[in-house]
UniProtKB/TrEMBL annotation:
Domain Fe2OG dioxygenase, chain residue ranges per copy: 154-259
Alphabetized PROSITE patterns for the sequence: FE2OG_OXY
Name under which the protein is recorded: Fe2OG dioxygenase domain-containing protein
Domain of life: Eukaryota
Native species: Coleophoma crateriformis
GO molecular function, one term: metal ion binding
Keywords of this entry: Iron, Metal-binding, Oxidoreductase
Membership in a protein family: Belongs to the iron/ascorbate-dependent oxidoreductase family.
Statement: the UniProt record of this protein carries the keyword ATP-binding: no
Entry annotated with the keyword Oxidoreductase: yes
Biological process annotations from GO: small molecule biosynthetic process
Length: 346
């Protein structure tokens, strides 16, 4: 079986239809692809990796000066049976990190400007990809834009991550990040270290994603899977703690592309010749409703903080997450007990 597809974005200029077709095929088969020729210079990617390294190397007191708030700005650190990951996020609306008071003092204005420039690069790229997906689906090129207004919340979120080195070899069965799908529209992922694994199209195994220098990884989130009625796949993935790498830090950066909270959950259906048209199914919910239920369910079990005192979620939205059927993974398995454990009102 051929591996995870590699798509060269330089085709966009010379043969946009072919490029859109290649993206669509990769995203409908694997839900993941490796993107080369994307136009973000390697030096700029490295610069942001260096900032991540510099920040995560700071003492705990500096990093913990500002914990992540509800506007998705600040630092967080999760430790659970399935791994440790620390992260730093810069807000969910354009330019918010230049003015926020919720970043550690380590983040000087000059450093924040570098982050903002990188976010702008990622934004341009994500818009280009959304255009290509819309084109491949027979929709107007700007079809996905109104639901992705950068001035509205939540916009796209850049998360710098470190999986700290361990001093002893871990149980090889414990991943550093448990299997999950991403709940946004799609994700651009940058990493220089192996470890990411994705579920194969036949769902029989997890396949390692090769690290290709200068390339980035694109994966479909629940959002595009919902829009496309499952034609584009939101694929399970995880970070495996490879025994040989347990004593090294692993860095990655994810740019989560999100539909705005107030965007209605709209469905498309696929007709003959692969064209997508509006589906009349009415769902009285927004992407915000979907994400709130999805995120909370995910984190609840992810953090192993299930003690019966979890948040009360609106059962209507939990039902929506369940019925839509794209959200899955160990961390969010809707088994007989999963939903109750997440503290859902009866
Ligand atoms: O660190 C990685 O390579 C993957 C991170 C990831 O899947 C996520 O943050 O959703
Ligand atoms: Fe992910």
């Amino acid at each position: 079986m051929a591996g995870i597809p590699v798509v060269d974005l330089r085709l966009f200029a010379s043969d946009p239809d072919r490029l859109s077709g290649e993206l669509f095929d990769a995203a409908s088969k694997w839900g993941f692809l490796i993107l080369t020729g994307h136009g973000i210079p390697l030096e700029e990617i490295d610069e942001v990796f260096n900032l991540a390294q510099g920040f995560f190397a700071q003492p705990k007191e500096i990093k913990e000066e500002k914990w992540m708030n509800t506007a998705q700005v600040g630092y967080d650190h999760k430790e659970s049976v399935i791994g440790t990951q620390e992260g730093c996020v810069f807000g969910d609306v354009a330019a918010s990190n230049l003015t926020t008071s919720n970043l550690s003092s380590w983040w000087t204005h000059a450093r924040r400007e570098k982050i903002e420039a990188f976010r702008a690069r990622c934004h341009v790229l994500s818009s280009q990809l959304l255009t290509a997906f819309a084109t491949a689906m027979g929709l107007p090129p700007a079809y996905f834009f109104p639901a992705h207004d950068p001035a509205k919340r939540p916009g796209n979120v850049l998360r710098l991550m470190r999986y700290p080195a361990l001093s002893t070899q871990p149980d090889a069965n414990l991943p550093s990040l448990g299997e999950h799908t991403d709940w946004g529209t799609m994700t651009l992922l940058f990493t220089k270290t192996a470890g990411l694994e994705v579920k194969s199209p036949d769902a029989r195994e997890f396949v390692p994603v090769p690290v290709v220098e200068g390339a980035l990884i694109v994966n479909i989130g629940d959002g595009l899977a919902l829009w496309s009625d499952g034609a584009l796949k939101s694929t399970l993935h995880r970070v495996a703690r490879k025994a040989s790498l347990y004593d090294q830090d692993r860095y990655s950066m994810a740019y989560f592309v999100n539909a705005n909270a107030d965007a209605p959950l709209k469905f498309l259906k696929r007709g003959p010749e692969g064209k997508f048209t509006h589906d009349e199914r009415k769902l009285d919910a927004t992407f915000g409703d979907y994400q709130a239920a999805r995120m909370r369910l995910f984190h609840e079990k992810f953090d192993s903080d299930v003690d019966g005192s979890g948040p009360v979620l609106d059962p209507k939205f939990v039902a929506i997450v369940k019925t839509l059927g794209v959200a899955h993974g160990h961390a969010i398995t809707y088994g007989s007990t999963g939903v109750e454990q997440a503290g859902v009102a009866a």
